[in-house]
């Protein structure tokens, strides 16, 4: 594979690359070789922290030998190169550091249920992407691996915690990569890197074999993509449940990839550009981006009203802080298991250490009350949306923020999230409610940086359908960052 051909292939999305394989125009090994060439061109981004190229070549060769690519038996994504986030996407036999110095020696013996679904679909895994420690930050600047560079500008964060995946996709290394989202960790990097970032609804896929849920339901996994159809196709891959899952969601009436070909009409949209949490006002360029989308939705025949569902922001922030302290106490215990000794402050980043110390002191009553608060505020939020189908809001309240803002200790966990929510605004409410939410690259700043606009709804189908309409009406495919390796 020559370099120019490898660069040319970067312009194709995952389904487009899969079509070449199915037509026999390329082999899976050749397509992987092209991705590896682009990975080498993008090394300066520090997006991929664990190389699994040899593993990927073995998998690609086996797919070529099996004849499955031409027969289509594995689906439309078979043979397409893919990267896994180094957190929540365990691959048996591959290191999973999770952005933490304490976990440098951890190698899982089982693959996660979602990763098994990716492999069953024939996606060729050849690396793992950078992430902040334990997914704690909406920026990707871990001490253990160093920061990931945003392909749009080295002066702004690629977001987090799925920042390595976002940077790799935005740069054209791969058309898609996995992510996870606990307070915005798919949608924030999607906004910062000009991508499609969908957080599925709660229960859409499984946390097997180890877990039944992530952080009391806040966490869901999916992917970063450049097109809506790739997001839909990947969601079809992971949708479902494992035997014994405590929570499940019925499959939709039709595959998501089919649903996006059927434009909806008369969707009732509620929109606001105000922040639901205390902090500075929303940036004017972000406001303009959301308002432009509202106008387009009206032109498409949807009904757009101004307003927002209500909830108690203080109760939400307190609950999120408590759930994170307990989660980080778990990180401390896991670190002890991996290290074979009691971890010390030097084994973790300062902001994680603050959360851990608070977690050690969090009572069972406080934890139960935090869960109760999440459920109570979900009901308030949902009651405010009964007359509408979709909520249209900013993804971030600002353009992509600088490094060193969203990962610093603030003395307490609550103070840490006060700073985060002043930037991320509405993202966490999709996690609290369990609603689906998608960030779409529908705006740009005067300096050319991407601005994400967010849609939220109880289910993914209407979001993906509206997103597909917006992709046609406000296309973003030709926007490329300075760090594009295609």
Side-by-side strand order of the widest sheet: 4-6-5-10-11-9-7-8
Shape: globular
Query: Approximately how much beta-strand content do the residues carry?
Result: 5-15%
How many separate helices?
17
> Gyration radius, to the nearest Å?
21 Å
Q: What class would the helix/strand composition place it in? A: alpha/beta
What is the CATH architecture term of the largest domain?
Answer: Alpha-Beta Complex
- Kindly report the CATH topology of the largest domain: Amidase signature (AS) enzymes
Catalytic activity: a monocarboxylic acid amide + H2O = a monocarboxylate + NH4(+)
Pfam families: Amidase (PF01425)
EC number: 3.5.1.4
Domain Amidase: 31-458
Written account of the structure:
The structure is a single chain. The chain is an alpha/beta fold and 486 residues long. The chain has two domains: 3-311 and 377-473, Amidase signature (AS) enzymes, CATH 3.90.1300; 313-368. The chain has 17 helices and eleven strands. The strands form two sheets. An eight-stranded mixed beta sheet has the order 4-6-5-10-11-9-7-8, with helices on both faces. Strands 1-3-2 form a three-stranded mixed beta sheet. It is globular and about 55 Å long. The mean pLDDT is 98. Residues 31-458 form the Amidase domain. It catalyses: a monocarboxylic acid amide + H2O = a monocarboxylate + NH4(+). It is an enzyme of class 3 (hydrolase).
